[in-house]
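Sequence and fold
=================
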Amino acid sequence: MPRVNDLSRSLTALDQDSTLIAVIEMGVKSWLVGALVPGIYRQPEKKLDPEAEGLLRQLRRWCDEAARAGRPVKRLCVAYEAGRDGFWLARWLRRQGIEAHVMHPTSIPVKRDHRRAKTDRLDVNLLMRAFLGWLRGETEHCSMVAIPTLAEEDAKRPSRERETLIGERTSIINRMKSTLVRFGIRGFKVTLRKAAEKLEALRTPEGVTLPPHTMSELKHDMERLRLVRAQIEAIETARLERLDQAPEAGPHAMIRLLARIMGVGIETADLLVNEALSRNLRDRRAVARYAGLTGSPDESGKRRREKGLARAGNGRVRRAMIQLAWRWLRFQEASELAQWYRRRTADGRGDTRKTLIVALARKLLIALWRLVTTGQFTHDLALHPAS
């Protein structure tokens, strides 16, 4: 039975005699557009400047050519690979009444030759073959990416910006520590609030102060660290204010529900909801697959082995769930999931614990998905009191 939200194939019958099919190989400086035009034997290709209005004009020209050939276009389908340009073009095309799709890059089969030719024109032909198979309703040709709304895409930015700032903070701290160690100074806490004031009093093992250029560099790094900390705090404060002002708006109810669980903080709840749990995922297998928490078996003849995690899904969700799985064992000791993990790791082997923590993360993600979508949680939970 076909599924309504199955993005692995089209559920609309394809009438190629009245459908204009176009694919776009998108680059920074130009776009190469290839098309199948009804009534036109040749398969035209056109290099355009990377702007939407020019693309629309070209599509209309091809529609006029089809009409002159006696095959008026009733359906116009456009597809391109997900990448740097994101989803803005697909949203814009849909507002113009054009059926637009975004193809998952890793779902498109490519040749495995050691030195295969690769050009924009060859890529356009490859995209066209995959898109045609998808439009015919055939599986295994390619998969489409769900196109988020502008609000859904924007909701991910605070969590992702905070993640970037955390990385910058760690980089600045490590750089300052390395600078001090180069002069034989260890144990100085560069993260202290008054660290900048104490720099002048630092002495190297030779009994001298830090050189002037090094002192300036450290002060500059401390100013950067202060700015990054302020930005992280501003993001966290703004998120709490949004949740307080509209507790039931959009995904806020999901975030507040998850944050009540012991071991799940606001940051983890916000990331999981906006990156994964608020998506229209089909079933539990789709949830685990989206997070990249499924296996990658390698079977050929008598050989049977597991190559580990597929890692084809959302890396942020995967990392967050593995971290949450470890916290779950601490804050939810009495839960059925924690007891399941301990029973199977009773032998104490390190590789068993590492393998099963991934299995625990997968089970936990599916359980949280069921909680926010149906309100049911099949395992015991320790909750914070409702505020």
